[in-house]
């Protein structure tokens, strides 16, 4: 009988999934996805290449330095126009602090994994190093219904210090295209009570961040300065009028469009940029 039970136990053990191997805790960046933590490639843009957002750089790098040093620091919401450099600044601020010799790690998490954040915090709370958990491009659509409300409230619980509160060595950096993390069409539907409740939930979430950093559409001179910064680093020349025409055709001026234009310049010159942006 004992042998039979042992054989059954052995068979069940073979059928059980292999537990995930924990990644080393000395890496610069990680990704949290589907309840697992994996090492990620970390190659932030040099912070001096981020042009036209000097105040935003000073604010976020200062907050990141304080957190890395074990001092009081804020959770941060970076909001504003698309392609303005929000995500790039999060990574560059961490890269800047690491280059100064202070250890700090980045963990990226998708909005769809917010519900598993307590599991992530259980792991990170055992680390002795400071961590920035990064949610990029957070937003909740009206089509998400109750699921979106639940995610917003779960994130509020994290920021409020509820049962799912983040550990003291963790701060949360979130980017969104709107200040209150609310889609424009939702904010305009004031006559619908249920939509109004959802909007209030999202605005209450935005208010929980101790640091709110706005990014705005840049003017033409600032945009050309962005192009010039990239071009000079890469040894490329450009015609300002050609650059303006490129931006006009795309209907926007942003750091992302500036990089797209410099990519076009490099292509015309027969250059590869596979590693240059690092």
UniProtKB/TrEMBL annotation:
UniProt xrefs under Gene3D superfamilies: P-loop containing nucleotide triphosphate hydrolases
PANTHER family: SLR0930 PROTEIN (PTHR42935)
Name used for this protein in its record: DUF815 domain-containing protein
Protein species of origin: Sphingomonas paeninsulae
């Amino acid at each position: 009988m004992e042998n039979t039970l042992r054989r059954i136990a052995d068979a069940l053990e073979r059928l059980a999934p292999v537990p995930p191997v924990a990644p080393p805790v000395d890496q610069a960046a990680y990704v949290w996805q589907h309840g697992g933590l994996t090492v990620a490639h970390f190659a932030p843009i040099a912070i001096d290449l981020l042009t036209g957002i000097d105040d935003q750089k000073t604010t976020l790098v200062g907050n990141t330095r304080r957190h890395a040093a074990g001092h009081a620091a804020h959770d941060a919401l970076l909001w504003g126009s698309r392609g303005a450099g929000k995500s790039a600044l999060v990574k560059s601020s961490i890269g800047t602090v690491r280059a100064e010799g202070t250890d700090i790690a980045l963990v990226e998490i998708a909005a769809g994994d917010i519900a598993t954040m307590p599991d992530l915090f259980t792991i990170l709370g055992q680390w002795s190093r400071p961590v920035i958990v990064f949610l990029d491009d957070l937003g909740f659509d009206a089509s998400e219904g109750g699921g979106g409300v639940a995610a917003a409230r779960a994130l509020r619980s994290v920021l409020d210090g509820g049962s799912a509160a983040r550990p003291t060595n963790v701060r949360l950096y979130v980017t969104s295209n709107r200040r209150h993390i609310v889609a424009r069409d939702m904010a305009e539907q004031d006559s619908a009570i249920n939509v109004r409740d959802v909007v209030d939930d999202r605005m209450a979430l935005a208010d929980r961040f101790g640091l709110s950093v706005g990014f705005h559409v840049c003017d033409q001179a600032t945009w050309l300065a962005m192009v010039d910064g990239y071009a000079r680093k890469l040894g490329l020349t450009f015609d300002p009028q050609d650059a303006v025409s490129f931006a006009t055709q795309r209907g926007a001026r942003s750091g992302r469009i500036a990089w797209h234009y410099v990519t076009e310049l490099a292509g015309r010159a027969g250059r590869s940029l596979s590693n240059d942006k690092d």
